[in-house]
Fold each of these.
Amino acid sequence: MNRIYIAIVILLLALLAGCVSTNVANDVTPPSFKSGVEAFVANRSADKLSEEDRSVMVRAARDLEKATPEPGLKVGMSASDFQLSNAFGKEVKLSERLEGGPVVLVFYRGAWCPFCNIELNALQSSLPYFSKYNASLIAVTPQRPDKSKEQLDKSKYTFEILSDLDDSVMKAYNLYFEVPQELHELYKNRFSFDITAYNGKDRLGLPIPGTFVIDQNGIIQASYAKTDYKKRMEPEDIINALKALSETRNSCK
């Protein structure tokens, strides 16, 4: 009897272990932007900025925060409609895209920005999660379409990248700012980031990185924008916003 009892217990434990492992395997955590940044910082060159270089960056960050203390449109506001060209010359309109489901709208500085690339890679990996809620991803940047095409070819992104060549959309979402000339020179000489090589001659306008989850009525349901370009909305938070939107919509049916 004892042997039979022990055998049954062992079988039940084995089945339970199988169920647990299956559930864990199915409950995959979405990629983290913060973890990507930490890995990048840990592995990048150990070269130190000079005090002069550091003062330029600190001054630019302080001035931007002072000029735009509350960047980005807020939850409950109507998302400004727009129509921009993608990397292949096709016009994409936000309101038309919203007809098919919610939109995750992301503004990023350009392919030259390593923190933007970390964010876009995390978002690309999160697309299967977004599609569960019938949501699509649109990224807006001031860089020229040919630079976006190079980025798409290199990174194999499958979402839309649109070029805001007159800065109107960045301004409509309260994200636009001009990079100070001294910071532009520092980017070029210290990091080999020439913004005008991506945006075009004399164009030093960039967006404060921002993310908006927009429902099908064009209302912003989640918003995140920080003047510190090293901070972005986590994919997990985007997914939670889409989940909440889906639950609210289903409860109203």
Note: The beta strands are 83-86, 91-93, 103-107, 136-141, 160-163, 176-178, 205-207, 210-214, 220-225.
Amino acid sequence: MSSNDTTMVEHGNIVMPAKLGIGGLGAGVTFGSIPFALVLIGCIVRGWWLAAGIITVLGVAAAVVTVVTVKQGRNWYRRKANRMAFRTAERRGDTLLVAGPAGRIPDGSFRLPGLLTASELSEHKDSYGNPFGMIRLATATTKHYTVVIECFPDGDSLVDQERINRQVAHWGGWLAQLGVEDSIVGASVTIESAPDSGLRLRRMVAENVSDHGSDFSTAVVGGLADTLSGGAPQLSTRLALTFNGTGLESKNSDRGVQEMADEIGNRLPVLLASLGMTGAGTGAQACTAQDIVDFTRVAYDPTVSARVEQARQEGGTGLTWSEAGPAFSEAKYDRYYHDRGVSKSWTMYEGPRSKFYATALRRAFEPMKGVLRKRVTILYRPIPAGDAPDVIEAEINNAQFNSSTKQRATARQKNRIRFANKAAEEEAAGAGLVRFGMIITTTCRTNDEFPRLEKVIPSLTNQARLKIREALGNEDVAFLAGLPLGVVLPAHMTLPDQIRDWL
């Protein structure tokens, strides 16, 4: 960090968790080759030279394919397995959903598809008496409770650099505090942009027009409302916090809705107050259950956004959680069709390798023409403060081992050792460790815009020096995870983090 607070602070020291083996291979591949090597040695000892030669050729070819076929962070094996898994799901009919009374849902509802099918939404009050909506997702492996916070950031226009630096520092401290709270398993920040319908401006003008005004002034004000409402984008920022509701008795026990509502309600005012210094705005507030239902419904069918906004101004939409999902959705390998929209998502597969600044993601957050909705979601998974020292120690050992496998360490290997040692120093000083990812989702009326977006969207993160790829074979999952509804994807995966890092 620069010693001069009036200059732009450089950020970095980001490392992708991975267990590296010999020759740049993954640790899983390295240790998986041990049985192969033992078989090869046995063949040589017994004098089976032909078998030893065939095994050697096959082993070398398999290792070479693992290294030289890497494309967007995946080798040939992973890409092939991804496509095969999608085709299997497509044959089973898992990629198609028809909801409603004439659909395949037993109760005829319009529940959310996929991971949130079993979710429940309820409304409670915090310790100050303010209402907040809570999403409960109880499955065989997870007992998660999520609250959504609506933020109103001021932006950085006409804001001096010193204040921006302080806001970034407070945001880092806020994320570090999440690691201290053991019950918080995930957080996400979603910035959504969409064309403004102009209803709010017209309503404000209509409420402030005087009956005694001249016809000319009334016509001018009305004309300005019609003109200015056409090009202004509508931006919304929502933050989702997911709490672990597993009981102390066993991993399969659930603390229950009422107990978790009481705990979250007591902690929510403190979390909201601490957001004020992070740039999230002083008016941050928890979303009610109706707010969550309404923006979820608009996400699946953006064409109803104007009607939902109009209904909210006139007293409320009256929609329920069982009506927030799509009536029709179908996941393709590179698209996701839902109601009267089609979406495509990109996910981050490699973080910044060098330094970057606080404005690095500015282009990614800006609205785009020809897009009904664009969401940029940053996913956070805080590492518990008690586990942070062990994680850093393992990273230092891993970086040193990877560097020692070569006679001369590369610059990237040296940087990884330096980053690991610096992370250990910062963690000892009170910093937190957080895993993070990113999902960018665009929703259009038709497929016509996607050839352009497939070229433009990946370039939006170049300034941040992170790389994104299309969510091929997982478009429906990426769409759902990009919504501020508290889906913690690793909690729903078969393989835990430790095994995936080894592979």
Note: Confidence is low (pLDDT under 50) at residues 1-5.
